[in-house]
Amino acid sequence: MTKPVRVRFAPSPTGPLHIGGVRTALYNYLFAKKHNGTFILRIEDTDQIRYVEGSEAYIVEALNWCGIHFDEGITPIKNTEAKGNYGPYRQSERKHLYRAYADELIEKGHAYYAFDSAETLDAHRKDHESKGKTFIYNWHNREKLNNSISLSKDEVDAKIEAGDDYVIRFKSPQDETLHLKDMIRGDIEIDTNILDDKVLFKSDGMPTYHLANIVDDHLMQISHVIRGEEWLPSLALHYQLYDAFGWDVPQFAHLPLILKPTGKGKLSKRDGDKMGFPVFPLQWKDPQTEAISMGYKEEGYFPEAVINFLAFLGWNPGTEQEIFDLETLTNVFEIDRIHKAGARFDPDKTKWFNHHYMQEQNDTNLATSFQPIVNEHVQNIDINYIEMVISLIKERATFVGDFWELSAFFFVAPTTYDEKALKKSVKEDTAELLNAVKAEVNGLEDYSVDHLKTAIKGWITSKEIGFGKVMMPLRLALVGDLKGPDVFDIMFMIGKKETIQRIETFIETI
Ligand code: GLU
């Protein structure tokens, strides 16, 4: 029987979650759902120096906003009973567990104590550099350094007894070839001579990422590790750790980098700042500097659009179809279709997705979002009216933030007329023609879009005048420009009185 699929998203709470992190969470989620598995959220907070207040809550909120819900993981309140049977799911709350595993590796001869100070190591590094070499703490140098391999047992015991600072390092073997497997990259061979003896346990009594990560993945029975490409260089160590403990190795999939819009280099917050797009799902206020970073949510993106564009950053379904919601993604998502090469981020495509999902939004909800903006300009507008306006303009909108510019004339009369449009549409007989239109409008008993259309079009045809000759200045009178939805819809929406008023004002101006 194959093992049940259990995957985890394991962010470190070191600041807001980058969209690359959201993509990792998404792919894990999709993989779990596709295989009837479990998606776990684990917080890797062993590095207390890099811990940033508020980032854990941010991660949970961001995933919730995207609809990426976890089956097991931390509960919002610290030290409460975790959701799932493999908790706690915060590494800081599992602190007591890790030391025994480090000790087990020492006993088995796979790890050792190292007492070297940061200054000594730095001096070695500099010395090597000056000779054009790279200092690697491994079999090459370890005999010359200050550790339980070079020192006698008594010396080591005495140092520990005296309370000297030490770390525990993994003892990487000499002259071996490791055979690693990655679901995306295939087979990888690594020569152990290039590996250094990574620190597993720090002097502050906390495990490093490497030890905690492997122990937790084992204890939480993780079947597949799906994570960013930046962890690929750690894969050799992780394989060796599984081997040293005698544990089954999970399957690994390292996701491609998300690249700048130019395609060169990793997408960073600075690229977003420079080009005006967010790289975080939600807005983030730095607790120290109070600087605000943009978020997709606050910039007016729909979570469906964010999910859809993230899904395509490094994966495609192999068909022409581009529109996928979470559920349809779950059905088609395959790890085999994830690319090896970096995925170029395209801010315009992201907007394209948002425009698409805008059309699918419910107009009543959109009206609720738009109402406060309308209220800034005019008071007491009926919500049903706002909703009708939205249905007429949303095909031109990408964001709710576009609505006012696209629809202001539905709420307030234009105060100016576009110069170019005036030149193009106002001729000698324009005032005369518009006066006639006004009379037609005034004469309508039943003021509806259909009646307006029949009356005005009929009149134009009967007079054998060019259509544009009337409709262009009429639009300009109502809108102030030559843009906007159908003129008859506008006339109907603003009402008979206001239509006549706007025509009159226009005639007075030209
Ligand atoms: N804590 C690591 C991170 O912040 C997790 C890496 C992994 O998934 O193994 O990305």
What does this structure look like?
This protein is mainly α. Among the domains are: 95-201, Alpha-Beta Complex (Glutamyl-tRNA Synthetase, domain 3); 361-411; 419-509, Arc Repressor Mutant, subunit A (Orthogonal Bundle). 44% of the residues lie in helices and 10% in strands. The chain is elongated and about 110 Å long. The protein starts with 5 loop residues before the first strand and ends with a helix.
Radius of gyration: 32 Å
The shape is elongated
- CATH homologous group name of the domain at 95-201: Glutamyl-tRNA Synthetase, Domain 3
Largest sheet: 3 strands, parallel
Write down the CATH class of the domain at 95-201. Answer: Alpha Beta
Any ligands, ions or cofactors bound here, and which?
glutamic acid
Which strands sit side by side, in order, in the main sheet? 1-2-3
Average residue pLDDT: 96
Helix content: 40-55%
| Number of beta strands | 14
| Class from helix and strand fractions | mainly alpha
Query: Which stretches are low in confidence, meaning pLDDT under 50 for 5 or more residues running?
Result: none
Distance between the termini: 83 Å
The fold-level CATH name of the domain at 95-201 is Glutamyl-tRNA Synthetase, domain 3
State which percent range the strand residues make up. Answer: 5-15%
The CATH level-2 architecture of the domain at 95-201 is identified as Alpha-Beta Complex
